[in-house]
Design a protein that fits this description.
- The chain is an alpha/beta fold.
- The protein folds into two domains: 3-194, inorganic pyrophosphatase (n-terminal core) (Alpha-Beta Complex); 200-329, Diaminopimelate Epimerase, Chain A, domain 1.
- Helix content is 34%, strand content 19%.
- The chain contains ten helices and 13 strands.
- The protein has helices spanning 26-41, 129-139, 146-160, 170-181, 186-194, 199-211, 227-233, 241-248, 279-285, 303-317; strands at 15-19, 45-50, 67-69, 82-86, 105-108, 119-122, 213-215, 220-225, 255-263, 266-273, 289-290, 294-300, 328-329.
- The protein has a seven-stranded mixed β-sheet with strand order 11-12-10-9-8-7-13, sandwiched between helices. Strands 3-2-1-4-5-6 form a six-stranded parallel β-sheet, covered by helices on one side.
- Strand 9 and strand 10 (266-273) form a beta hairpin.
- Helix 3 packs antiparallel against helix 4 (170-181).
Length: 331
């Protein structure tokens, strides 16, 4: 795939609506902002559409002027405008319902992506959507401005755990190297992201440390957070990557599972695995999806019901006595 496939379908001054998935992470936002900057330099009029403002964690990134907050019910797309959807494993994950409208570009790296765009830049072998985009641009000789390089680089960092996750390949590092050569501001990322964690992340860590427990013969760490607790601590939208780094990194643990009751009887399930379990497959059984080592789903029901279901699924995939399913409470 290359830029020449989509370039004839775009024109200078054209409205380009860039959309991402619900509760966007660093890869989704970094990719969207970086793409907007590149498209702007090519003469187009990009807009990064969001149903709510960007989380404060990522407001330091360049390209904020391209962000436009539009409630779902008020979205109107120009007849001759183009739509690009980024980092969505399927069309239903997009923040906006597109109906029968196929986006011009569907750029993604999730293995579950069915190819719902007119042009599909889907590569499950890419560690991040930002890797895919930056690779497409530099291989076709499209200049990536320093501001866009900064956004793409941050996106790479977040979806690879600072290049620690097993999804990193030589292509990932080649993309990172190119972004640095293009002027990615590593000092900005380090000072505003790596060393400037929101206070609510610490509150999230505290709640998880107080509530997690080992289950399934200590092969899995499970933590459930009730809605009232998250609301009181203001951690409903808090990032959890660093929490998972701690939990999954525990000796002997194959998986870490976090259940967040985002509203009464609506549970967001997030999972990280090491070597044995396929997180995407497990999430798929719950109506979700993601990557082999990181995936999630939404569960309609109580925290207790969600716990029972996830333990049932994990127990069937781990060689552990049934008696281990009850788990032990962490100190």
């Amino acid at each position: 795939m290359n830029w020449q496939q989509v370039e004839p379908l775009l024109y200078k001054g054209q409205d380009v609506a860039i959309m991402v998935h619900e509760r966007p992470d660093g890869d989704a936002l970094g990719s969207a902002l970086g793409l907007a900057i590149v498209l702007h330099t090519l003469g187009m009029s990009p807009r990064v559409l969001r149903v709510s403002p960007i989380d404060e964690t990522f407001t330091f990134l360049p390209g904020q002027s391209f962000v436009e907050v539009v409630p779902r019910g008020e979205l109107e797309l120009p007849k001759n405008g183009a739509v690009m959807v980024l980092d969505c494993g399927d069309q239903e994950r997009c923040e906006y319902f597109l109906g029968n409208k196929r986006p011009l570009v569907n750029a993604d790296h999730h293995v579950t992506n069915p190819g719902f765009g007119i042009i599909n830049w889907v590569d499950p072998g890419a560690a991040a959507t930002a890797e895919l985009l930056s690779r497409l641009f530099y291989e076709d000789g499209i200049t990536i401005p320093p501001e866009a390089a900064t956004c793409f680089y941050l996106a790479l960092l977040t979806d690879t755990g600072w290049f620690h996750y097993p999804n990193v390949t030589w292509k990932t590092m080649a993309a990172a190297s190119h972004l640095i050569r293009q002027g990615a501001d590593l000092q900005l990322i380090r000072s505003r992201f790596g060393e400037n964690h929101p206070v609510k992340e610490l509150r999230m860590m505290k709640e998880v440390m107080n509530r997690f427990r080992f289950i399934l013969n200590d092969q899995v760490i499970l933590c459930s957070l009730p809605c009232e607790v998250m609301t009181k601590q203001d951690i409903l939208t808090s990032e959890t990557d660093r929490v998972f780094d701690v939990l999954k990194g525990t000796q002997g643990v194959e998986a870490a599972v976090l259940l967040k009751e985002v509203e009464p009887n609506l549970i967001k399930i997030s999972m990280r695995t090491k070597q044995v379990l396929n997180a995407s497959e497990i999430a798929g059984l719950l109506g979700g999806g993601g990557h082999v080592r990181a995936a999630g789903a939404t569960f309609a029901g109580s925290l207790e019901a969600a716990e029972t279901r996830i333990i049932e699924i994990l127990s069937s995939r781990l060689a552990t006595p049934e008696s281990g399913a009850a788990g032990t409470q962490a100190p």
